[in-house]
Write a structure and sequence with these properties.
The complex is a heterodimer of chains A (262) and B (359).
Chain A (H helix, E strand, L loop, with lengths): L4 E7 L2 E8 L4 E5 L9 H6 L4 E6 L15 H14 L5 E6 L1 H12 L4 E7 L16 H8 L14 H14 L6 H6 L7 E6 L10 H7 L3 E6 L6 H4 L1 H14 L15
Parallel strand pairs in A: 3-4, 3-5, 5-6, 6-7, 7-8
Antiparallel strand pairs in A: 1-2, 2-4
Helix pairs in contact in A: 2-3
Chain B lengths: L1 E5 L23 H21 L3 E4 L13 H11 L4 E8 L5 H14 L4 E6 L5 H4 L4 H20 L4 E4 L4 E5 L13 E4 L3 H9 L3 E5 L3 H17 L9 E4 L1 E4 L3 H11 L10 H10 L3 E2 L2 E2 L10 E5 L1 H15 L3 E4 L9 H19 L3
Parallel strand pairs in B: 1-2, 1-14, 2-3, 3-4, 4-7, 7-8, 8-9, 9-14, 10-13
Antiparallel strand pairs in B: 5-6, 11-12
Classes of the chains: A alpha/beta (262), B alpha/beta (359).
């Protein structure tokens, strides 16, 4: 992750950290409930995009966030952060918890979001779904289909974990968020929903709900990936994300050449 | 216990025909082929009358030994002409297929006659890697991914794309969908740890074939362990055992036939050097324990005896392997002597079948 550099931006009274790399069209990323975690996918995306991976206020080493009371509020803050960075029109990617923030942001600021990518989105969950697990071991088991193939996660300060969990519990909202779901039909941006077939955090069977609720929505299953698709199958993930952001609906038309010998 | 007849589209081969796989199609006689397909229908009616529960089909290529390269076509042929008996497609060779096409064709069958079919998905025998130019090193992974995609295509209610390792589709939305939700009666076929793992994870049955009771029990034991890991327990109908059986009027008659078979050669073996090269590249296992692939060797006999001894052996197979469906053909595939086979089938139907229902 050597190419990413750290920056900070002020928005809504928060000092928001972000990691940035690459040139090209802007791609803002909103992380999952575990906080900002750069993966090989970020590096690959940075070859095509100016990637800005935000650390949302209250996550990581940032000060405790007691101010933000709802997901729409958090989305408004992140839109303000994008404003401050001069991201005029940008692609927006949300991972898991952050996909709900991304959906609200795209609804609040339709003129700003060119394309929306929802990685393992947690905006629609089975009724009675458990909150993200707290122990690092259980978390690794639920994040990855093959935890043993991942580099060891850096230790997380228990105080940070406790703060983050409180924030996530407050903002994640109900499993089926009627307020959000009724508005999804208004979503202007083309959306790509990506699930790993081995996701045990959010069942990939949730994918079809997004297709049913969002007017211009595509659903992709990444074979043999768990919840953290970007970490487990980064090339497969980035290929489809990049293709979608470039071509939107037309990404379904194959450009693969199959001629064996001319 | 249920009984299935393994239908191979018996094609009597002239004694002067070439004996090496692939068999030159110059030796093929259209009239004999047409007759073989008509006889499939007659045999299906015959075994149904005898009380067989299923008739099973397989996919093999480039040889008269088994004349059914397309299981869905074989199944449609039989289903449209024979009523009642269940038809088991064991099954499409997944790594050489377009999984979406497989999902569609099996869904078509299941729609034409709901509940009539049983589907088995498999990697295929080693020689079949040559049929459609499959790299043996990719066979296992293509199978696993292909099977997963087939199940997904059956179950997913909205159009989706598939970002796989070996398969990529940006648009999948099959019509018809199988009437049984989330899927028709489906088995993963094979003795490997991977087949068991897949079957256990997706709550599928397991089909094992052509090995001793000990080997088969090793495979089904592993399957049951994996099922327990996933929180469920397979029943007898979840385990199919395809195997060879020599049935005689008496034990002596069967033993004599077994003795004669000891000198038998595989009907259409692959050239020795090619077989060796294939075996070198094909990694196989039984429930996780490495075992070389069988390329061009005679398949073993698992049951041998007069009716009483065979009944005892079937009980033992039930206990040891947990098998609930036995899949047999009573003479080796490739043998065109259908008269002898019909006699054996009749003997099985009269003297064995009535006694194994309660097994």
């Amino acid at each position: 992750m050597g190419t990413f550099r750290e920056g900070f931006v002020e928005a809504d009274g928060f000092r928001i950290r972000y990691m940035e790399a690459g040139d090209g069209p802007a791609l803002a990323h909103l992380h999952g409930a575990g906080g900002l975690r750069l993966s090989p996918a970020h590096d690959l995306l940075a070859k095509q995009y100016r990637v800005v991976a935000f650390e949302m206020p209250g996550f990581g080493a940032s000060a405790e966030n007691t101010k933000t009371q709802s997901m729409p509020e958090l989305a408004a803050t992140m839109a303000a952060a994008a404003d401050q960075l001069g991201l005029d029109r940008f692609n927006l990617m949300g991972t898991s918890f952050g996909s709900k923030t991304a959906l609200w942001l795209a609804l609040q600021r339709p003129e700003r979001v060119l394309g929306l990518v929802l990685e393992s989105p947690a905006a629609i969950r089975p009724e009675g779904a458990a909150p993200p697990p707290s122990s690092p071991e259980e978390l690794a088991r639920r994040l990855y289909a093959y935890p043993e193939r991942q580099p060891p996660a850096p230790p997380v300060d228990p105080a940070i974990r406790a703060r983050t969990q409180k924030l996530v519990a407050r903002l994640r909202g109900p499993d089926r968020d009627r307020d959000l779901e009724t508005q999804l039909s208004q979503l202007k941006a083309p959306a790509l929903v990506v699930f790993g077939t081995r996701d045990t955090m959010i069942p990939p069977e949730m994918g079809h709900f997004y297709k049913e609720l969002i007017p211009n929505c595509h659903l992709i299953f990444v074979y043999d990936a768990g919840h953290a698709i970007d970490a487990e199958r980064p090339e497969a993930f980035v290929e489809v994300v990049g293709d979608f952001l470039e071509r939107h609906e037309a990404f379904v038309i194959s450009r693969t050449e199959t001629v064996i010998h001319p | 216990m249920k009984v299935s007849f393994f239908e191979t589209g018996r094609y009597p081969v002239n004694s002067d025909a070439p004996r090496e796989w692939p068999v030159p199609s110059a030796a093929y006689d259209p009239e004999t082929g047409a007759k073989a397909y008509r006889a499939m229908v007659e045999r299906a009616r015959f075994v149904q009358k005898l009380g067989f529960d299923w008739i099973s089909l397989s996919e093999h290529h480039y040889s008269p030994r088994i004349l059914t390269p397309s299981p869905p076509l074989s199944a449609a042929h039989l289903a449209s002409q024979v009523d009642g008996i269940k038809i088991a497609l064991l099954g499409p060779i997944v790594p050489v297929s377009n999984p979406i096409r497989v999902a569609e064709e099996l869904a078509m069958l299941d729609t034409m006659q709901p509940g009539r079919f049983v589907f088995g998905l498999l990697r295929g025998t080693t020689n079949e890697y040559l049929s459609y130019d499959l790299n043996p090193k990719e066979a296992r992974e293509r199978t696993d991914e292909g099977m997963e995609l087939i199940l997904k295509a059956w179950a997913e209610p909205q159009p989706f794309g598939w970002q796989g390792r070996y398969f990529q589709y940006r648009t999948v939305s099959i019509w018809p969908r199988p009437p049984q939700s989330p899927r028709p009666e489906t088995y993963a076929l094979g003795v490997s740890a991977e087949a068991s793992e897949f079957a256990a994870r997706h709550h599928l049955g397991l089909g094992v074939s052509y090995g001793s009771f000990d080997l088969m029990a090793q495979a089904t034991g592993y399957y049951r362990e994996r099922c327990a890991e996933y929180g469920w327990e397979p029943g007898p109908d979840d385990i199919i055992y395809r195997c060879n059986m020599i049935l005689g009027e008496t034990d002596e008659e069967a033993d004599a036939a077994l003795e004669r078979r000891k000198s038998a050669q595989a009907p259409f073996p692959i050239a020795a050097n090619l077989a060796k090269a294939l075996i070198d590249q094909d990694r196989r296992n039984v429930g996780g324990a490495a075992r070389p692939a069988n390329v061009g060797r005679v398949l073993p006999i698992s049951f041998c005896g007069g009716p009483e001894r065979v009944i005892k052996q079937l009980r033992q197979a039930r206990e040891q392997i947990g098998v609930g469906v036995i899949d047999i053909s009573l003479t080796d595939p490739g043998s065109g002597d259908t008269g002898a086979m019909m006699e054996k089938l009749e003997l099985f139907g009269k003297k064995v079948l009535p006694h194994i229902r309660e097994v």
